[in-house]
Design goal:
The structure holds 2 protein chains of 2 kinds.
Chain A lengths: L1 E9 L2 E10 L5 E5 L6 H8 L7 E6 L2 E2 L4 H6 L1 E4 L11 H11 L4 H15 L14 H12 L6 E5 L7 H16 L3 E6 L2 H4 L4 E6 L2 E6 L1 H7 L4 E8 L1 H8 L5 E7 L2 E6 L6 H10 L3 E7 L4 H18 L1
Parallel strand pairs in A: 3-8, 3-9, 6-7, 7-8
Antiparallel strand pairs in A: 1-2, 1-4, 4-5, 9-10, 11-13, 11-14, 12-13
Helix pairs in contact in A: 3-4, 3-5, 4-5, 5-6
Chain B lengths: L1 H17 L3 H19 L7 E7 L4 H12 L3 E7 L2 H9 L5 E5 L3 H7 L5 E5 L4 H29 L24 H32 L1 H6 L5 H29 L9 H24 L4 H17 L12 H7 L3 H15 L3 H28 L4
Parallel strand pairs in B: 1-2, 1-3
Antiparallel strand pairs in B: 3-4
Helix pairs in contact in B: 1-9, 2-7, 2-9, 3-6, 7-9, 7-10, 7-11, 7-13, 9-10, 10-13, 10-14, 13-14
The chains are: A alpha/beta, B alpha/beta.
Chain lengths: 310, 377
């Protein structure tokens, strides 16, 4: 799946701004960003649901603008909006989507059985979908989306509103599919889910802000080393550090302070020294592993600052 | 294409069958309204409350009043000799019509000087008033003719009745001028329009609201396959509607059906095609069922009023007359009335058929082309 300078404008509003992205076969790419960042719009363009205003993209080898019909034959799609017919049974829904995707009759039986067992709904073919609990519905929707064995899967916040345990099971399914070579682009706003992805693309205001594996982003995303300090008084400590040379960021984090510093200019001992010189008591200090959330908040804030100054 | 269409239709059928109340919802209101309108929609006025102020007290004045009563159209609710009382009767809705026979009515009648008859009408309901006045005209004319004949008979010196024009009215196609015959076919068309436009629009907008529409649009299904799959059921339900209400009209209200059922079938199919296309077009402009409801209300009600169902199109302002040209119901009413009562065929009705076909094609093409575009916003 390749996108090159993909853009979408609605009137004066640019929802997606020259987004370039490559996702390899069998890769699970996470799509992270604040609400309204352009995640859904990008996915809808890649699915051929809406035409791009600029740039181009190919999915499974087909151009999303010119060959949207071919693209739709080769993708599976599932959105945050639950999209099965609640007044039809499990089996009727599966048969309907299999028919729409023209799954060959002789393969229908095994594929339906696979989808049913994937959703954990064995023996419930005749249950009305409307009576199923959220997690089952979600897994069944995924089952419907892959009935035609698409090589590419687009999941737009597939787990929103589903309880954690069911989300966990859902992600196991995504990894099973990836192991079979299915390329997946999945958007989410759950940070713990970002950790399950091979790579993460962070977008904000229609632009790609950062891309990399969760490990890479944690390592370089902050642009410095993260230290956690327990000190008193907390507010004065943050104030004392803000704007100081070598300090990239200082913020209260629970009952402690998180400081991002350029390790070449300001090591941990020097940092503690500087605080104590300012009359602040430091009870504990040490390096902290940054969470992805830290990284995203930092990157989004930095991206916005840059855009304001430029 | 046929394979996917079949899958769509099977799905629609399953959903319809699962919805136990669907049949009830579709049929009961139709039958009830057909019966209700069939009895209520009439211009005929019976038993108009009438007050009589007889200041002449002559045999002629009594004779005229008995003409009124004998017609069956007027009920004399009050006889008085007090002018104020008559005014009160009309003002307080005791009577709709007041008949005033001044003193000297009989004398003037006999000396040939022309007897004045005053009629007071409550004009609040202008329609009833006009119709009642029409009856009064007829009754008075008959009374005059009777009087003239009696005078001619008694006065031998006159040589027959004087010169005059004798109007002989012979209505064609509806000899009794039964207005049920006029209204029932109109009701059939109107009810079908009202039901099928909303049925089609809501069927699609509901899928859009729930999200299943998007799920289907990311599949390789084409806009034509989806649109056909969604509208064919409405189309078939519409045909069933027309058959059902026609049967009620013929069997229950005894409206004659003198034409060719095949002509009506062909006309109904074109009309339904236009109706379904209109529902489809409305659905491409609606993202929620509320929007669909508002649009439906905005378009379908004027189409109903401006169809010639009750108010003659020729009497409307020019601009509204132009507007009726895009109204499929206008053409269908001509077709269904003509087939029911006149029995004419394609050779006469082809302009209506052509207009409905053109409307259907334009709206259908517009909806299919708008269909994918309507997903982008």
């Amino acid at each position: 799946m390749i996108a090159e300078s993909l853009s979408k404008r609605f009137g004066d509003f640019t929802a997606v701004d020259q987004l370039s992205l490559r996702i390899g076969r069998g890769e699970v790419m996470g799509f992270i960003g604040p609400n309204g960042a352009g995640k859904s719009t990008t996915i809808r363009m890649l699915c051929g649901l809406i035409p791009p205003s600029g740039g181009r993209a190919t999915v499974a080898g087909f151009d999303v603008g010119r060959e949207s019909q071919r693209v739709r034959e080769h993708i599976g799609y599932m959105s945050q909006k639950f999209s099965l017919y609640s007044d039809l049974t499990v089996g009727e829904n599966l048969r309907f989507f299999a028919g729409i995707y023209r799954v060959p009759t002789k393969e229908l039986g095994p594929r339906m059985r696979y989808a049913v067992s994937m959703a954990g709904l064995e023996g419930q073919q005749d249950t009305l979908v409307g009576t199923l609990a959220g997690g089952w519905k979600q897994r069944l929707a995924l089952g419907c989306a892959i009935l035609h064995r698409p090589p590419v899967l687009f999941l737009d916040e597939p787990t929103s509103g589903v309880e954690p345990e069911a989300r966990r099971r859902f992600w196991d399914l995504i990894h099973d599919l990836a192991a079979e070579g299915v390329t997946t682009l999945v958007s989410t706003h759950y940070m713990d889910e970002a950790e399950y992805c091979n790579r993460i693309a962070l977008i904000d205001r229609g632009r790609l802000v950062a891309i990399g594996s969760p490990g890479e982003l944690r390592e370089r995303g902050l642009g410095g080393a993260l230290y956690e300090l327990a000190c008193r008084p907390l507010g004065a400590a943050v104030e004392a550090l803000q704007g100081q040379s070598g300090v990239l960021e200082a913020a209260i984090f629970g009952d402690r302070m998180h400081v991002v510093a350029d390790p070449a200019m300001l090591g941990l001992p020097a940092l503690v020294e500087r605080l104590r010189a300012g009359g602040i008591e430091v009870d504990a200090a040490g390096p902290a592993p940054p969470s992805l959330e830290d990284v995203f908040v930092h990157l989004v804030a930095r991206g916005r600052d840059r855009r304001i100054t430029s | 294409m046929l394979a996917r269409l079949r899958v769509m239709l099977v799905k629609e059928l399953l959903q319809l069958r699962r919805d136990r109340s669907a049949m009830l919802r579709l049929i009961v209101p139709l039958v009830v309204q057909m019966l209700m309108f069939g009895y209520a929609a009439t211009f005929t006025v019976h038993h108009v409350a009438t007050a009589v102020l007889d200041l002449d007290h002559s045999s002629a004045s009594r004779d005229l009043v008995s003409h009124f009563v004998a017609s069956g159209r007027f009920d004399v609710v009050d006889r008085t000799t007090d002018e104020n009382r008559l005014r009160n009767d009309v003002a307080h809705d005791v009577a709709v019509i007041g008949i005033v026979l001044h003193a000297g009515f009989q004398r003037h009648l006999q000396d040939g000087g022309g007897a004045p008859l005053q009629v007071i009408v409550d004009g609040t309901n202008s329609n009833t008033a006009l119709i009642a006045l029409g009856y009064i005209g007829q009754i008075v004319a008959r009374f005059s003719a009777d009087q003239a004949a009696a005078l001619a008979g008694s006065a031998e010196n006159r040589s027959g009745p004087g010169p005059g024009v004798a109007l002989q009215v012979v209505p064609w196609f509806n000899q009794g001028l039964e207005d049920t015959w006029f209204f029932i076919p109109g009701i059939i068309g109107s009810l079908t329009l009202l039901q099928i436009v909303s049925l089609t629009a809501f069927a699609i907008v509901r899928e859009r609201e729930v999200g299943t529409l998007e799920q289907i649009l990311v599949s390789p299904i084409s806009a034509v396959e989806f649109v056909l799959g969604k509208t064919l059921p409405s189309f078939l339900i519409g045909l069933g509607d027309i058959a059902l209400v026609c049967a009620i009209g013929i069997l229950w209200f005894h409206v004659p059906f003198v034409g060719d059922p095949l002509v009506l079938l062909a006309g109904s199919m074109l009309f339904l095609l236009a109706t379904v296309s209109m529902g489809l077009l409305l659905s491409t402009y609606s993202h929620t069922q509320q929007q669909a409801f508002a649009l439906n209300f905005f378009f379908v009600n004027p189409f109903f009023i401006l169809s010639g169902f009750a108010f003659p199109i020729a009497a409307m302002p020019r601009v509204l007359q132009w507007f009726t040209l895009i109204n499929p119901l206008r053409y269908f009413l001509v077709v269904i009335r003509a087939v029911f009562l006149k029995g004419v065929g394609f050779s006469v009705l082809w302009p209506e058929f052509a207009a409905m076909a053109a409307l259907a094609l334009v709206m259908l093409a517009a909806s299919v082309s708008r269909f994918r575009a309507s997903m982008t916003t």
